[in-house]
Amino acid sequence: MVQPDLQTVRLSNGKQITVHTQLFINNEFVPGHGPLIETINPATEEVICSVHSADKQDVDAAVAAAAKCFKDTWRKVAPADKARLINKLADLMERDKDELATLDALDNGKAFTVARDVDITDSIACYRYFAGWADKIHGKTIDTTFDKFCYTRHEALGVVGAVIPWNYPTMMAAWKFAPALAAGNCIVMKTSEVTPLPAYKFAVLVKEAGFPAGVVNIITGYGHTTGNFLACHPDVSKMAFTGSTGTGRKIMESSSTSNLKKLQLELGGKSAQIVCADAELDKAAEWACGGIFNNHGQSCNAGSRILVHESVHDKFLELFIKHTKAMIKIGDPFDEDTFHGPQINKSQFDKILKYIEIGKQEGAVVAHGGKRWGNKGYYIEPTVFIKCHNKMRIMQEEIFGPVVAIATFKTIEEAIDMANDSIYGLAGAVYTTNLDTAVTVTNEIKTGTMWVNCFDVFDQSTPFGGYKQSGFGKELGKYSLQEYTQVKVVKIMRSNL
Question: Tell me: the pLDDT tens digits for 428-476?
Fold first, then answer.
């Protein structure tokens, strides 16, 4: 007997919400042929519901729906009409902002207010930004010789496959969907099996907005099965992936052994925040605190290494812990005052606690936190390590949790070397009042994004992506449109016409 699609679940605040649990293919919710997957509320450790997963035949069906729609319908829709549909989708998300935020908070454990005011708000802005690009993706005419007419076309790729992580369920979907749709592609997206519920609410809005059947297809399943089927599919022209570096490597392998599909990989990070002696320490401490503890430390770009000039270390630490205590209100995601919810699941919870023990064993000292919070839910206190050095595992390995390691430096050259001594290169920051220092550091750090006197500041118009093992390709901004198009050259011999 097939499990019915709609399920009603109760929230911790006593309210109820109805969720979709089946796959969204060709504008319809349909049963999956893979195993049912339980999605867990990380705040209570209780099962929210079970969702369908996609096996190979479901992936084939989703890709076929997208391919047919691209060939028969979507590529023939005028760019201005694509823009209208994307804007309509953003309007519907605005209307249902609270419900989308509720599902993010329920499935992921993040604070409802943060989900509503940051994640969903920024996602809506992302769709509106790229709607504006839909009719502005142009080629060029190129003068070659008198007898030839030459021009380029920026063409959609066709079927885009996407795999998103669990840490920003709605926002990471927006970062893939919005530019892909604006550039004229159809898309098959696999949600994380840990946080599938927000994407299915989004699917309802896609259909309501009037998108043709097959433009957007959303499936759920495990990475080693569903994700692999999608990454290996010969009719998928591109894979966009956000997640771990290890999984990114597997997707590269899948591309190489299938059809050499185009890749865009946004992977792990171990971002360094450099606090100079001349920094405004109170502001630096406040920004640095948010830089690591936003989203419970579960961000690829989290500023999990803080390098502080030795002359201001003690004062900075005092201010940093003060801001941590003031900012990080731990509790139920649906309490208005909560900023810091639980970690995503038991596996991640155990991994973070293990890294805290590793830090102690390596000789680092816990200056704040370091323990589980409460006795129910996957909560971990914001944890601050001091007396760290760059060879420690807590300074080199991505923990993906609310753990920060603080080390000192003597010269700015030493700080730059320490920051670059990492396999990752996603983001970083420098706090200084000296313009020359700011320019020197931002030029020398090998990362895709550098912030000065701030952290975690995003805008839809500015690109985001990594260096080194943090991946390649850009999300957001005009640059991201290059990831979803291919350039064709047309040369016409005028004398033969």
Answer: 999 999 999 999 999 999 999 999 999 999 999 999 999 999 999 999 9
pLDDT in tens, 327-375: 999 999 999 999 999 999 999 999 999 999 999 999 999 999 999 999 9
Q: List the beta bridge partners of residue 6.
A: 20
Phi, psi of 317 (to 5 degrees): -60, -45
Contact 423, 469 (CB under 8 A): yes
The answer to whether residues 379 and 373 touch, using CB atoms and an 8 Å cutoff, is yes
Are the beta carbons of 240 and 176 closer than 8 angstroms? yes
Q: Which residue has the tokens 């171990």?
A: 270
Active site residue 444: no
What are the backbone dihedrals phi and psi of residue 225, each rounded to the nearest 5 degrees, phi first? -110, -75
Q: CA angle at residue 272 from 393 to 278, to 5 degrees?
A: 130
Spatial separation of the C-alpha atoms in residues 338 and 295, rounded to whole Å: 11
How many other CB atoms are there within 10 angstroms of residue 37's CB atom?
19
- 24, β-bridge pairs: 29, 218
d(CA 377, CA 385): 24
Exposed, middle or buried by CB within 10 Å (0-12, 13-18, 19+), for 23?
buried
pLDDT at 495 over 80: no
Can you tell me the distance from the alpha carbon of 386 to that of 322, in angstroms, rounded to the nearest whole number? 15
* Residue 290 identity: G
pLDDT attached to residue 241: 97
Mean residue pLDDT of the chain comes to 96
Token pair belonging to 286: 């406040």
Strands 186-191 and 159-163: parallel
Residue 286 annotated in active site: no
Pick from 416, 406, 419, 450: nearest CA to 308: 406
254: number of Cβ within 10 Å: 22
Distance CA 186, CA 174 (A): 14
Burial of 436 (0-12, 13-18, 19+ CB in 10 A): exposed
Q: Which two tokens stand for residue 162?
A: 């996407």
- How would DSSP label each residue in 155-205? EE-SEEEEE--SSSHHHHHHHHHHHHHHTT-EEEEEEPSSS-HHHHHHHHH
Report the candidate in 138, 90, 189, 160 with the shortest Cα–Cα distance to residue 478: 138
User: Distance of alpha carbon 123 from its chain centroid, rounded?
Assistant: 11
Given 99, 193, 266, 398, which residue is catalytic?
A: 266
State both tokens at 20. Answer: 């979709």
Measure the CA–CA gap between 140 and 278, rounded to whole angstroms. 48
pLDDT of residue 14: 80
Torsions phi, psi of 439, nearest 5?
-65, -45
pTM for the model stands at 0.96
Contact status, residue 180 vs residue 152, Cβ threshold 8 Å: no
Per-residue three-class SS string for 360-388: HHCCCEEEECCCECCCCCCCECCEEEECC
Residue in 69, 186, 232, 300 annotated catalytic? 300
